[in-house]
Write a structure and sequence with these properties.
- It is built from twelve helices and nine strands.
- Strand 5 and strand 6 form a beta hairpin.
- The relative contact order is 0.09.
- By secondary structure, it is α+β, with helices and mostly antiparallel strands.
- The longest helix has 25 residues.
- Strands 1, 2, 3, 4, 5, 6, 7, 8 and 9 form a nine-stranded mixed beta sheet that branches.
- 30% of the residues lie in helices and 11% in strands.
Length: 508
C-alpha cells in the first residue's frame, strides 16, 4: 500500500491528515495510528530499520514527515479504527507524545491483538526514553468474595477499649476469689488459676464478654478407670497412702472421687464470697445440668461479662491409651512438639457422663484446653508463622469465621441446632490443619479458599455424622442418634456456601 492509499482510507473515516511514515523515525516521533496498538515501544516492520524508528504503513518516509520532507505539527490520531483498503495493520506499540508543558497524553486504547507484557509496577509510570511515557498498569482487584470475608473478619475483631475494660474487671474479681478459696477450705489450698478458652487463644469474636478460668488442683496419685467406650470419661480413685488426704472427704460410697461433691463445695464458697464485692456487682448463675462450670455474671453496663470457673484436676499420670492415636500433628507442628505435649500432665474436669444410666456425678472428663491453647499460640509449620518478623497466615481468621457462621445459624435455628457448640467447629478446624499442614496452604490472601476448604470438611463430617475428637479418635463428637440435626446443619452450611454467605450480611 502506498502513502496515497493510506491517506484516502483515513480520509474516509474522517480523521485528521497525518504525515506518512517511513524508515529512520526518531524516538520522539508519534507512533502508528492503528487502533489498539499496545502501550510499550514497538519495533519497525522494515528490515534494517533502527529500533528507535516507529512502524509505518508506508515505506521510505520518516514518521511525522511530509512527502516533501517537511515535518507536520500535528501528531497522528490514535483513537480511530485501522485504515481500510491497505495492508493489514502491524502489531505496533502506540504511545502519545508529550506536549510542550510536560503533561502526559492519554493512553492509547486497548487492542484486540495480544500485547507484550509491560514490566512497570502497578500504579507507576514506566520510564521511557525521549519523553515518551508508558501508560500506567492498573493493579488487579481482589475477588468480591475475598473482599467480603475480610470485611466480615474485621467486624469480628474485638475493640481494644472493650477488651481492656472487660479484662480489668475479670482480673479484679477472679484473683480475689482464688485467694479466698485457698484460705477458706484446706481441700482447695493448693488451687492454681489457669486461663483457657477462645479469649486467651485470641480467637474470640464480636465481644469480650466470655472468659474461661480453670481452677487447677494438682494431685499426685490417682487411678484412672474408663467409665464407657468413648475413652473420654473416667472414674478416679486414690492409690494407697495418698498425699492429698484433704480430698478424701469428697469420696462417694464406692470410694470414687465425686466430681459433684467437689464442685458443690467450691460453688458454695464462691456464692458466699461474691456478696462481699463492693465496687462491682457479681452474681452466680443457676447450675446447669451436666455443666462442669460455675458461671459468674459481672455487671458491665450496658452488658454483662460471663466467667466460667472450671474445676480441674492435674494428675501426674501418663496419657490414657485412648489418646495414643490422637494428636496427629507430626506433619503440622512436628514430632518433637507432639512428644512434648504428651509428656504434660493429664487434666480432668468435673463433667457428668450423660451416657450413664444412673447419674451419680462421679465421672471426670479429659480436658486438653492447655494443649489447644499452645497449639493456637504456635500454630504454624514454620516456627515464625504470624510472628512479628514472620509471614502471616489465615488459620485464626478461618476459625473465627467458622465460629461466627455457627453462631449466626444457631441464632436463626435455635431449636434445630441446640446441640452444637463452638467446640465442634474448633475440632474440625484442627483436623483441617492436619490435612493441610504447610503454611503455604494458609496464605493470608487465600482466606476465601481456605475458609471454604474448612467448611467442606465440616460438611462431610456432618453428612456422615462422624467428627472424631482431636485427641481421642474413638470418641465421636457427632452422635449417630442426631443424624437429623447433623444433616440439617450440613444443608444450612451448604446453602450459605453456595450463595456467598448471605447470613454474614443480615446482622449488619
Amino acid at each position: 500500500m502506498d502513502g496515497a492509499g493510506g491517506t484516502r482510507a483515513r480520509g474516509r473515516r474522517g480523521s485528521r491528515t497525518a504525515a506518512p511514515r517511513g524508515r529512520g523515525a526518531p524516538r520522539s516521533a508519534a507512533r502508528s495510528p492503528s487502533r489498539g496498538a499496545p502501550r510499550s515501544a514497538a519495533r519497525s516492520p522494515s528490515r534494517g530499520a533502527p529500533r528507535s524508528a516507529a512502524r509505518s504503513p508506508s515505506r521510505g518516509r520518516v514518521a511525522g514527515e511530509s512527502p516533501s520532507g517537511a515535518t507536520t505539527r500535528r501528531a497522528p490520531r490514535t483513537d480511530g479504527p485501522p485504515a481500510r483498503g491497505g495492508r493489514p495493520g502491524q502489531r505496533a506499540h502506540a504511545a502519545s507524545a508529550l506536549p510542550a508543558g510536560g503533561v502526559e497524553a492519554p493512553p492509547a486504547p486497548r487492542s484486540r491483538a495480544r500485547a507484550t507484557r509491560v514490566p512497570a509496577a502497578p500504579r507507576k509510570v514506566a520510564v521511557v526514553p525521549d519523553g515518551v511515557a508508558a501508560a500506567p498498569v492498573a493493579a488487579p482487584r481482589p475477588l468480591p468474595d475475598t473482599l467480603r470475608l475480610h470485611e466480615v473478619l474485621s467486624r469480628l475483631s474485638l475493640a481494644r477499649r472493650d477488651v481492656s475494660e472487660a479484662s480489668a474487671l475479670v482480673n479484679m474479681v477472679v484473683p480475689h476469689l482464688v485467694q479466698t478459696i485457698r484460705s477458706r477450705d484446706g481441700a482447695f489450698s493448693s488451687i492454681e488459676q489457669h486461663s483457657a478458652g477462645s479469649y486467651y487463644e485470641r480467637v474470640k469474636i464480636s465481644q469480650p464478654n466470655e472468659f474461661d478460668i480453670m481452677l487447677v488442683i494438682p494431685v499426685e496419685r490417682l487411678q484412672l478407670d474408663e467409665s464407657d467406650d468413648t475413652g473420654a470419661y473416667y472414674y478416679l480413685t486414690f492409690k494407697r497412702n495418698p498425699k492429698e488426704k484433704y480430698l478424701l472427704k469428697f469420696l462417694d460410697e464406692d470410694g470414687k472421687l465425686s466430681a459433684f461433691k467437689m464442685l458443690q463445695a467450691l460453688r458454695e464458697i464462691i456464692k458466699q464470697e461474691v456478696k462481699n464485692f463492693k465496687n462491682v456487682e457479681v452474681t452466680v448463675t443457676r447450675k446447669k445440668a451436666g455443666s462442669p462450670a460455675i458461671t459468674l455474671q459481672i455487671k458491665n453496663p450496658p452488658s454483662e461479662i460471663s466467667v466460667d470457673i472450671i474445676l480441674t484436676l492435674e494428675v501426674h499420670h501418663s496419657w490414657p491409651p485412648s489418646t495414643q492415636d490422637g494428636l496427629k500433628i507430626k506433619q503440622w507442628l512436628g514430632t518433637k512438639v507432639r512428644r512434648e505435649f504428651k509428656l504434660t500432665s493429664v487434666y480432668l474436669v468435673a463433667k457428668q457422663n450423660k451416657r450413664e444410666k444412673v447419674l451419680r456425678g462421679n465421672t471426670w472428663r479429659l480436658s486438653f484446653s492447655h494443649i489447644e491453647k499452645m497449639m493456637m499460640t504456635n500454630h504454624g509449620h514454620s516456627k515464625t508463622c504470624c510472628e512479628s518478623d514472620g509471614t502471616k497466615c489465615c488459620r485464626k481468621g478461618c476459625l473465627k469465621l467458622l465460629k461466627y457462621l455457627l453462631e449466626q445459624l444457631k441464632m436463626k435455628y435455635p431449636k434445630e441446632l441446640e446441640k452444637f457448640c463452638s467446640y465442634h467447629v474448633k475440632t474440625a478446624f484442627f483436623h483441617s490443619c492436619v490435612m493441610w499442614p504447610n503454611d503455604t496452604d494458609w496464605i493470608l490472601g487465600d482466606l476465601d479458599h481456605c475458609f471454604q476448604k474448612c467448611l467442606g470438611y465440616f460438611v462431610e463430617c456432618l453428612q456422615k455424622s462422624q467428627l472424631p475428637h482431636f485427641f481421642i479418635p474413638q470418641y465421636n463428637l457427632l452422635s449417630l442418634e442426631d443424624k437429623a440435626s447433623n444433616h440439617f446443619l450440613a444443608r444450612q452450611i451448604s446453602h450459605q456456601l453456595n450463595n456467598r454467605f448471605p447470613i454474614f450480611q443480615e446482622s449488619y
